[in-house]
Design brief:
Layout lengths: L7 E5 L6 H15 L7 E6 L5 E2 L5 E2 L3 E2 L8 E4 L5 H5 L2 H13 L2 E4 L3 H7 L7 E2 L6 H7 L4 E2 L5 E3 L3 E4 L4 H13 L2 H11 L5
Parallel strand pairs: 1-2, 1-6, 2-5, 6-7, 7-11, 8-9
Antiparallel strand pairs: 3-4, 10-11
């Protein structure tokens, strides 16, 4: 899953994405870079490369646009109130489906899984989301096996997490998966993160 230039991770950002859904995994992956032999490259990108206003009002300028993000080994899709228009956006869902074809690993945080479901990427799979949206996830695709007990669900090439801070747990799990438990524990220690 790596290239000669290191492991490439992209975090998609959009208006109304929840701040910690973006910043939590970003912090984990950038802290990992300092400890990793894989030297992951972490970038943020928006649909058109322009700045976005996150759910609680934080303005963010991403690194690039969806057209310029290049090949990724891991795409992280956050949640937040801004997912609601994206769930019904046919062009966006087609783009996400196309990204899935060329991206070995797709991960969602919180209600980002609703967009994955709307794109048909969770059909017949176990998945989770924010606790207040379990019914909505099942309503988008009744074939999804909604896990209401765990903080994240690793189903191989798709990983989904529960709400907000659970994205940090998922990101640490992915560090362990890509590299090893020792490095993941070092990152956890660097961040002084106790977890749930």
């Amino acid at each position: 899953m790596t290239t000669g230039n290191g492991l490439s991770i992209g975090i998609y950002v959009f208006d109304g994405a929840e701040e910690l859904n973006v910043a939590g995994p970003f912090e984990v992956f950038t802290a990992w870079r300092e400890r990793s032999a894989l030297k992951p490259r972490v970038s943020t990108f928006s649909w058109d490369g322009r700045g976005v206003r996150l759910a609680q009002g934080l303005h963010m300028v991403p690194d690039r646009s969806a057209d310029d993000v290049g090949p990724l080994q891991l795409l992280v899709y956050p949640g937040g109130p801004g997912v609601q228009p994206l769930v019904g956006d046919r062009i966006h869902l087609e783009w996400l489906h196309a990204m899935r074809v060329q991206t070995p690993l797709l991960a969602s945080v919180c209600t980002g899984s609703l967009v994955l479901a709307a794109a048909g990427l969770l059909a017949g799979r176990p998945a989770t989301t924010h606790w207040d949206h379990y019914d909505e996830l099942a309503g988008i695709d009744p074939s999804i096996m909604v896990d209401t007990e765990t903080r994240f669900v690793d189903d191989g090439d798709v990983v989904t997490s529960a709400g907000v801070s659970a994205g940090i747990d998922m990101a640490l799990h992915l560090v362990e998966r890509f590299e090893n438990a020792e490095v993941a524990d070092q990152v956890r220690h660097d961040l002084q993160y106790e977890g749930a």
